[in-house]
Amino acid sequence: MKQLISVLFLAALALALAAQETKTEIKKIGTAEADKHYQETCIVTGKVAQVTIREKLVYLNLDKKFPDTPLTCVIFARATNQFGDLKKLEGKQVEVQGKIDEYKEKLQIILNSTNQLKVVEPDKAEKQN
Length: 129
What we know:
eight-stranded mixed β-sheet, CATH 2.40.50.140, alpha+beta
């Protein structure tokens, strides 16, 4: 019995160590770099330049308004209630996490939950200016 417990403990320890080794740190990038990370999961930082609310989805265009935005965050209707008043994000610096994908030749990240979106404080240098 003791041998069985020891074997199970060692197997669990080996699995835990293997899982730690396979974890990779998510890259943090700006919107200008998003095209270099197509099909990768990243944390992208940018300023919400435009919030467009449609019947079935919401677009958050980062750094520039549509059609010049380097990255759009898309929130489908089934998830919009989780996010509160999205119009209040306009002008805010944010971090969005997700897989960088493409739709109609435009880069996007689909946001399914609030843990993918974080409002961040501007740098102290920006506050002083």
